[in-house]
Amino acid sequence: MEILLGALAIAVAYTFSSLRILKQYERGVTFLLGKFWATKGPGLVFVPSIVATMRRISLRIIATDIKPQDVITRDKRWRSSRSRITCTPLVSSRKRPCEVCWAKPNSTSYSRTA
Fold this sequence. Notes:
- The protein is mostly beta strands.
- Helices cover 15% and strands 48% of the residues.
- The strands form three sheets. It has a three-stranded antiparallel beta sheet, with no helix packed on it. Strands 6-7-8 form a three-stranded antiparallel beta sheet, with no helix packed on it.
């Protein structure tokens, strides 16, 4: 009886350690023994803790502030200062953690003249 109770306690502990909670703006990319296995959506997700790992990927747009730069025209009549913000959307939550170098080909730059 004690062995059965101990096995049940180990099974319950393993089940609770394998549960993950993903927020609405996150996706989980799971790797089974180091290879891509599946993408998981938001909510309560079961990932076997011994043989699988999960990386959280945020689907929010990343906004990066760039320092203001001075701009001089060709005829050198006036100077202006520009500050920029770069917004980068996520292309694919499946491809992002699997690639070695994640480039930002779809970044959009917004500039504001002061």
